[in-house]
UniProtKB/TrEMBL annotation:
Single GO cellular component term: plasma membrane
A Pfam family: F420H2_quin_red
Matching InterPro entries: F420H2_quin_Rdtase, Split_barrel_FMN-bd
Similarity comment text for this entry: Belongs to the F420H(2)-dependent quinone reductase family.
Protein name: Deazaflavin-dependent oxidoreductase, nitroreductase family
Source taxonomy: Bacteria, Bacillati, Actinomycetota, Actinomycetes, Geodermatophilales
Molecular function as annotated in GO: coenzyme F420 binding; oxidoreductase activity
Chemical reaction(s) catalysed: oxidized coenzyme F420-(gamma-L-Glu)(n) + a quinol + H(+) = reduced coenzyme F420-(gamma-L-Glu)(n) + a quinone
Length: 148
């Protein structure tokens, strides 16, 4: 079941607009970043501090039904806020890929598993490699697997 509670839309207008169009159309609209061909999915998390429902369109990185959330924030010096939401509430995440919506559990990957998923992420969205070069922080990769 999708997360319940008060929804707090992104402060970024383009994110709000993309999430609204994606959800309204079952992923048939707003399913790429503006001007890009690579697909996105919408991840819903619970705010780490506020407890409010948050939604973010992220690049689609999927393998065998598991999705990766790459905390790149375009190579910014700090992790995106949704990363902290997942750390605080790893069992409160929903994935919408097109019309399909499902509940998942998040876990950050490290070591060899992270290296394997990083390759998949860069293959899906080559800009991730550039983003890692732009920042001193190691960009986290968080997997979302279906709830049992």
């Amino acid at each position: 079941m999708p997360l319940e509670g008060e929804y707090e839309p992104s402060p970024e207008k383009w994110v709000r607009d993309q999430v609204e169009a994606y959800e309204r159309s079952g992923g048939r609209e707003a399913n790429t970043l503006p001007g890009r061909p690579e697909p996105v999915v919408v991840f819903t998390t619970r705010g780490a501090k506020s407890g409010k429902v948050r939604k973010n369109p992220l690049m689609k990185v999927e393998h065998d039904g598991v999705y990766a959330m790459v905390a790149s924030q375009g190579g910014a010096p700090k992790h995106p806020t949704w990363y902290f939401n997942l750390k605080a509430h790893p069992d409160e995440v929903t994935v919408q890929d097109g019309e399909r919506v499902w509940d998942g559990v998040a876990r950050e990957v490290h070591g060899e598993e992270k290296a394997q998923w990083w390759e998949r992420a860069v293959a899906a969205f080559p800009d991730y490699a550039e983003y890692q070069q732009k920042t001193d922080r190691e960009i986290p990769v968080v997997l979302v697997e279906p709830k049992a």
